[in-house]
């Protein structure tokens, strides 16, 4: 009954098999391996972007930070939501790698076009003394489990383009959003106005690899230099390539995300039937819900693993509603979900 994070789940067996196969013999280093050619061709085909520049790094923080550094200048500011991963969970790595600052767009989990427009307009108003306008970063799936619709993405990108700004998509759970929307990768990215995307794999069954995709390949060489200078160019790169190649073969990336989302829907249905209060309507593989402290204590006592979101488990008021987060991945057995719901 482990619902702490999709980061906590195992590596998919098909990926482990691919890694063992890639371990045979010799391959050229630093991304010159044969598997990287397969990855590059496959991603370009999937995204309907034959000229895209495609790179691999080992972490989502590296993918986001290096992509944003390539899209911005140190005197600019990057616009994001107050709960964006680049703001709350990356230890200032985006600021470190970009030299830029982050400007938070007021509002909740999802950025709204009007709020984004006002926030952008308020910058670049003090001449040399203030930050200049820089990229807009959108998280898809959001940190609270919401999914931007295609129309919402197009609206946000439209605001950015009106100011001549590039758009970055933090897609750590990219595929969970994709299958929730039942659209194509192209529709969710460059056709909507996205310039660069962090295409996540670690949260969806890989050992540790994320792709960075630039739909304008004029940024390619700069990214390569930043990746090397930032100490994120792997020497034995084939082990990154092998993971991503296995992920894209036989639609493993889609199969894993569909299973994770289905697990989440099953869990959400059971929580709803039990009277749990939802903080955000579940749309992909993350649930934010609330129920009494006494019930949390009972569930933790019998081995359920998930994160409380705010108040501590120990407290005097047994009836106090405590918020929590559940995350499902591809590997969660249906039996564990049902056992958890039965205990609930």
Commentary on this structure:
Helices cover 41% and strands 17% of the residues. It has 344 residues and is an alpha/beta fold. The strands form two sheets. It has a seven-stranded mixed β-sheet with strand order 1-7-6-5-4-2-3, sandwiched between helices. Strand 4, helix 7 (150-162) and strand 5 form a beta-alpha-beta unit. The protein is globular and about 55 Å long. It starts with 12 loop residues before the first helix and ends with a helix. The model has no long low-confidence stretch (mean pLDDT 96).
What's the average pLDDT?
96
| Poorly predicted spans | none
Number of helices: 14
Tell me how many strands there are: 11
Keywords:
344 residues; 14 helices; four-stranded antiparallel sheet; alpha/beta
Q: Layout of SSEs?
A:
Layout: H1 13-22, H2 34-46, E1 53-57, H3 60-71, E2 76-80, H4 85-88, H5 93-98, E3 101-104, H6 113-122, E4 132-139, H7 150-162, E5 167-171, H8 174-181, H9 185-188, E6 196-200, E7 210-214, H10 220-229, H11 238-248, H12 252-273, E8 277-280, E9 286-292, H13 293-301, E10 307-308, E11 321-327, H14 334-343
Parallel strand pairs: 2-3, 2-4, 4-5, 5-6
Antiparallel strand pairs: 1-7, 6-7, 8-9, 9-11, 10-11
Helix pairs in contact: 1-11, 2-11, 3-10, 6-7, 8-12, 12-14
């Amino acid at each position: 009954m482990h619902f702490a994070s999709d980061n906590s789940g195992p590596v998919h067996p098909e990926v482990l098999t691919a890694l063992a196969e890639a371990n045979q013999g010799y391959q050229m280093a630093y991304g010159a391996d044969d598997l990287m050619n397969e990855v590059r061709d496959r991603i370009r085909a999937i995204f309907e972007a034959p000229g895209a520049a495609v790179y691999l790094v080992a972490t989502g923080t590296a993918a986001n930070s290096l992509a944003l550094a390539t899209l911005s200048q140190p005197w600019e500011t990057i616009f994001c939501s107050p709960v964006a991963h680049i703001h709350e969970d990356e230890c200032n790595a985006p600021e470190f790698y970009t030299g830029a600052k982050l400007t938070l767009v007021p509002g909740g989990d999802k950025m709204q076009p009007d709020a984004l427009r006002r926030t952008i307009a308020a910058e670049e108003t003090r001449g040399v003394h203030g930050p200049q306008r820089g990229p807009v970063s959108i998280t898809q799936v959001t940190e609270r489990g919401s999914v931007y619709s295609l129309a919402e993405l197009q609206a946000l990108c439209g605001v950015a383009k009106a100011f001549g700004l590039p758009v970055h998509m933090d897609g750590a759970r990219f595929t969970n959003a994709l299958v929730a929307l039942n659209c194509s990768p192209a529709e969710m990215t460059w056709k909507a106005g996205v310039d660069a995307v962090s295409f996540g794999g670690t949260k969806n069954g890989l050992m540790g690899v994320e792709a960075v995709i630039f739909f304008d390949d004029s940024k390619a060489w700069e990214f390569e230099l930043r990746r090397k200078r930032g100490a994120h160019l792997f020497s034995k790169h084939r082990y990154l390539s092998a993971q991503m190649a296995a992920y894209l073969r036989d639609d493993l990336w889609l199969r894993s995300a569909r299973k994770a989302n289905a697990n989440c829907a099953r869990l959400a249905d059971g929580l709803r039937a039990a009277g749990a209060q939802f903080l955000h309507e579940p749309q992909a593989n993350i649930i934010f819900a609330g129920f009494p402290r006494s019930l949390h204590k009972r569930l933790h006592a019998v081995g359920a693993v998930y994160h409380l979101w705010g108040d501590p488990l120990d407290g005097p008021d047994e009836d106090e509603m405590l918020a929590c987060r559940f995350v499902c991945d591809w590997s969660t057995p249906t039996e564990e979900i049902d056992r958890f719901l039965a205990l609930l």
